[in-house]
Amino acid sequence: MKWLLLGMLLLLTTGCQSEHSLHIDNDIQGNTLLVAHTKEPALSIINPDIHELIEEVSLPFSVHSMVQGEGRIFATSQQEEMLYELSLTDGSLRPIIDIGDGVAEMLYDDGTLYATRPFHQEIVKMDVENESIETLAASGEHPHSMALDDGELYVANVYGNTVDVIDKERFEIARTIDVIGRPTGMIAYDEGILVGGHGPFGELNTEMHTYETSEETQIEVGLMPVAFLETTEGIVGVSHGSHEVFLYDTESKQVTDRLEVAHNPYYLVQANDEVAVSSLDGDEISFIDPQTWELIQAVEVAAGPHVMLYLEES
């Protein structure tokens, strides 16, 4: 009986870490936008050139973070303990590194993957080629959003109300910055870092804040700004509480444009010369022209679209 139970346990353990085969009907070529969903385990494949949904692919789990590097696609789920590599060519989803569960966000930087594990108070550094891992304890509670700037990695601690500045080479905290309450969403730019967030409990935030600059400023942008993207036109952000996308001009330090999109926008990427925005509760991907600030097309997708990845035709 003991050996039977041991065998069943081994089968369950190895089964959770086995390679998955995805059923992809179409031959995916050219520019492609991948959209992972949080409300159901699915991956939407969109042709951003014609703003058309090509296919919806079932996944074995919901993907919560997805990045690319050196021609490879990496994905994780908060419920899974493995880092997976996704191939659109053969439809495989292959486990490559055991990084533990609860990964919230990943960043790729020249052969290195960084990940935050909020419920474990950890920041993870992965050498993808050698499949090695280092972990670092965050100084504050619930590390989540990240940003890269030269030799430093910024990590926002949501319930610590701080940002850890990490020396990438030594992989140690160089300094810690006190920031807005419940920081979420961050970007490094020429002058410093921009931080958004939900604000202190009982007081919802409507501003993004600059830090590591000659003068710290607060810019009114809309209810709960949580994601940012640097473009040639300026910094584009989403305020998920007021369902807006906005354009911030770093020279004038003013918000120059706003556009309402579907309910609860939470993620954005550059796709071609456009900005793609996913709306968690609106179930749409909005394509916006950052020059004219017009909505080009809204593509309906499955429930809960969140993280996106733009793959440019090689």
Automatic annotation (TrEMBL):
SUPFAM superfamilies noted in UniProt: C-terminal (heme d1) domain of cytochrome cd1-nitrite reductase
Gene3D superfamilies according to UniProt: YVTN repeat-like/Quinoprotein amine dehydrogenase (2.130.10.10)
Matches recorded under PANTHER family: DIHYDRO-HEME D1 DEHYDROGENASE (PTHR47197:SF3), PROTEIN NIRF (PTHR47197)
Name of the protein in question: YncE family protein
